[in-house]
Structures are given as C-alpha cells and as structure tokens.
Amino acid sequence: MTSVASETYFQQNARAITGGIKVKSEDVNVYYGEKHALRHVNLDINANEVTALIGPSGCGKSTYLRCLNRMNDLIEGARVTGKILLDGQDIYDRELDVVQLRARVGMVFQKPNPFPKSIFDNVAYGPRIHGLATSQSDLEEIVLTSLEKAGLYNEVKDRMNEPGTGLSGGQQQRLCIARAIAVSPEVILMDEPCSALDPIATAKVEELIDELRENFTIVIVTHSMQQAARVSQRTAFFHLGELVEFGDTEQIFTNPQHKLTQGYITGRFG
Amino acid sequence: MKDEHTVRSYDEELAHLTNLIARMGGLAEAQLEGAVQALIRRDSDLAGKVIAADVKVDEIEHEVHSFTVRLLALRQPVASDLRHIVGALKISGDLERIADYAANLAKRALVLNQIPPVRPTAGVPRLAKVVQEVIKDVLDAYIEQDDAKAIKVWRQDEEVDAMYTGLFRELITYMMEDPRNLTACIHLMFIAKNIERIGDHATNIAETIHFLVKGSPILESRPKGVSILPYPSDMPEDV
Asked: Residue A40 CB: number of other CB atoms within 10 A?
C-alpha cells in the first residue's frame, strides 16, 4: 500500500461496514456471437461496498455489470461462461429463477426510466408483482420507506398520485432508485446513473449511494473518473474486454500499478 | 501507450510547472554558491547581492503556489499527474527554505567580514561543497525523474551530518581556546547549522522525488551519523 500508516483513513472508512465477498466472479467470459466481449474476468465484490467499474467505451464494463443479474440473457447471441456466485450460489445455475435473481440484484439505468404511472405506483410496482406486501397499509409502508431511503420522500409526499414522469431528471433517477430498493434487493447495479443529471442532482444521487451502501452492495459503471473516485471504495479498470486492474479506489487514483490504468485515468489514452 | 495527454495544453501546463521548479532550483543553487563565495572571499558586495536576490526565489514560490492551485482546481489531476503537482508544491517549499538559509548565510558573512578571520572558516566551505553537490544532484534527479539518483542523495545526508558534527566540535574547541574567537565562531556555528539544514531540505526533496516517481513514501529510516547531542539518536533533530 501507499501509506505509512497501516491503514489509511479511506481504508478504515471502507472497512467500517464492509462485509465479506458478496459476488464472486470466476473466469467470466462473454461472447456476443463471434465477438469475445469479456475475457477471463475474476473479480470479488465486497458486501456493503461501492465497486466502480471504469474504462473506455466498449471495454466490457457494462457487459460485466449486466452479467451480474443476467441481463445479457436478453441479448440474442450472447453467451456467458465461467461462474458468478452470489453468496456462494451460481447465478447461472439452470435451476435458478431469474425473476427472483433480479429481485435480489436490482438495477438502475443511465436514463431515468420511470413507468408512466403515479409516483406511488412506480415504487409499489415491484413489491406488488413479487407479492412482498400482505396488505395495502403494508404496501404503503414499503413505498414510503423506499422513497425515504432514496431521499425523495420530502419532495414528493404531497403528490404521490401524480405521474412519475412529471418529476425533474434527478428526482426521476431517485424515483428509479426507490423503485429498485422497494423489493429489498441485496445488490444494486447502476449503469451510469448520473450521466443525464446536473451537478446538484448528481451530488444528491452520490450522497444517496454512500448512504445506501450501509444496507446494500453497489456496483456502478461510470464514465466520470471523479465520480468513481468520490463514491466507490473499490475500482475496477477494464480495457478491451479484460479486467486490467482492480484495487482500493484510493490506490487506483493515486498510484495505479498498471500503465493502461495510469494512461486512462490521467487522460493519456491514445 | 503514448506519454502525452489527449489534451495538449495540460502537458504544456505540467511542463511549465517543471520549468518553474527547475528555475527556482537553479536560483537557490546560485544563491548558496554566492553566499559561500561571499564568505570565503570576504566579499561584502556579493553578500549584499545574495541578500537582495532572495526575493526572486520567493516570487517563483508564489508563482508555483498559485499555479498548482489552478491546476488542481481546473484539471483535477490523478495518479502520476497528481503526484507531480503535489510534489512540485512541496519541493518549492524546500527550495524557498534553502534560499532563505543562503540569504542568512550571506548576512552572517557581512558580519564576519567586519572582524578578523578565524581558522575553521576552511571547514565551512568543505561542508558547503558537499551540500552544493547534493543540491545539484537532487535537482538533476528531479528533472530526470530519476529515483535511484534521489535515493543516493537521500543516503548522502549522513555524510553531511557527520561533517557538521565534526565542525561543531572543532568550533567549540576554538571558542574554549580563546574567547576572542567567540563572535566569529558562533556565526560560523550558525552558518554550519544552516548549511546542514539545507542538506536536510535536499533530503526532503529526494523523498518527494521518490514519492512522485514511485507513488509511495520511502519506508526505511534514513541512516543517521554521529549526533552532536549526548542523547539517543531518536531525539528531535532540531537544535
């Protein structure tokens, strides 16, 4: 490590609530038809940590992210080999219920995509289809808690029946996060969740991500290096389908070990 | 991988920063040389020039400060760029101190030139010569980003400490021999101490160079010579 102290402030901060390995990837390969999009990725994602995936476009980071809740299943010609273990259980096991998996591993997308429904119904959607609420009051409780956790409750409490699409971009993204956490997932995948947001909305989402890691494990794909540095405890750098370097975010941004990582994060990519 | 940034003006700014440090280093080096010559040749004019020129070093230090703050704010550097910028900021502080000590040396040379010379004046130039070499090497190491050279400088400080300790004892002997030597010897004592401190700043710069090249601090402890203090070597260095 780079510090004289045995553990730096940042590491202590990360360790404070870090659990064990939540998602373990062993020799993961993804093919889109003939194209070998992801090559031999071995990566351990710790519970209650934010893991950032960075790299240039087409490097495989989003492909890897989508492996974690089997979103690649939806792409024709996509084939995944290797193992991805969620709490030790292979998520590509034939026996496994993909719908259940996606309830455990939720996702927030680049562009806020609220359903054309009311704010309440957006958040209630997941608990309803998964049968998580036993009564209407139970459902209301889940919706309110989720909105609170997503830091949106105070802004929308008086207009729960208005359409979710009427909110501002940043609010819509937090609504999508509320929707994702309403089904009590264990892992939340975020694919560039702030790229369509202004700096203030971005800051709110980042603050939220930091709070959420107390209860969830978060994996975030971002093109903003500053964002990766700000929100994550661990950073993985991908290039041409390979995992080039993975380490403590502090180390990656102060003293990367690989020349490619150094080149990418300092803006020297040819 | 190419070594240039995609944004070329960023490279130019980093090069400008390196140039500022090189210029400041060259100036600090010249100040020390001038002060030592003023002392050896008993040249009060030269001493006066050195004292007057100190402000130039301060000016470059200010320029380095404002330039690094600007780079940090506008470029948000990471990794080697970040270390380069933080390193320049630290090194400018050390160089400013080195130049300050040189100016102080020149001021004491002015005083010494008013009184009859004492013998150990010869020991001081010897110490100064070694420290000047150290400064030259550490500045080369910075320009060339040469960690091995920086480490060599870092180890050399032991020799400087040993020479300083020898000089310290010598001066005490002269003072005990003849109290009329007191004024000159006390000035020489401070001069020796200042030169030794300049060596310490060169050591700091060597450590910074190691950090900016390797990304980690030097973890081993620096070899220490004989101390002038009758205490264990873990006592604070500043006396």
From this structure: 15
